[in-house]
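Provenance

Sequences were taken from public entries as deposited. Structures were produced by running a predictor on each sequence independently, with no templates supplied. The record for ABC-type branched-chain amino acid transport system, ATPase component from Hoeflea phototrophica is shown for reference.
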Amino acid sequence: MLKIEDIHVSYGKVKVLFGVDLEAKPGEILCLLGRNGAGKTTAMKAIMGLLPLSQGKILLDGREISTLPAHEVPKQRIGYVPQGRRLFAELSVAENIEMGLMACGSGAETREWVLELFPRLRERLAQQASTLSGGEQQMLATARALCLKPKVLLLDEPTEGLQPSMIELIRNVIVQMKREGLAVVLVEQRVDAVLSVADQVAFIEHGRSVETLAADELKEDPDKIHKYLGV
Ligand SMILES: Nc1ncnc2c1ncn2[C@@H]1O[C@H](COP(=O)(O)OP(=O)(O)OP(=O)(O)O)[C@@H](O)[C@H]1O
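Predicted structure for ABC-type branched-chain amino acid transport system, ATPase component:
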């Protein structure tokens, strides 16, 4: 479904991606693992068209999307929950969801679907986003991305800094999205969390894809984790 082929990306003159290849398939969770600064977030931003590629391409269902302007990428039904959530802090929960729906012309049915996934948001529709707890903000950011009815969902460290009950809740939604046939790409630091949900694990080292393997293979060969992450 989503194919990233040999992408190279720079911030100004500083090159940070030197060849990243990934493939996210429907009904699967692909986890990106790598040390701090390896380039995981940069790869997600590049997929969303937020950073230009100096080499390589990104394809969705065989069609190149890396030539599209950034505002067209979500319309291809690629949902993105960036690290740090980026909500409209001054707006209410309902208004944040409305912004997500408007972005791609979704309606009441989609609104109902996301509120069923996150009942806690329904209880807080009038509350200002900035006053939500960290876990609730993560729910809202995820709900907003799901308003696109995405085929592909990119999540950058969605459980960072959350308490265990919230982590469990977010994790359940991610697994549910996989079951609904979405291709999920997840950046996650915690190896145990990766191994419990991932189908495929892609290691990125110093801006390069070094190895992608099935999560089951990784469980049988945990030395790889030490090799690439030093833990
Ligand atoms: N806006 C920027 N300008 C210049 N360099 C940047 C910028 N953003 C990131 N970098 C650099 O690019 C490299 C990759 O960063 P990136 O955030 O993609 O890594 P990461 O694997 O997501 O790390 P982490 O696990 O710490 O979130 C790092 O060396 C970082 O310092």
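The pocket of adenosine-5'-triphosphate is lined by residues 11, 14, 16, 34, 36-42 (CB under 6 Å).
Residues 113 and 147 are 9 Å apart (CA to CA).
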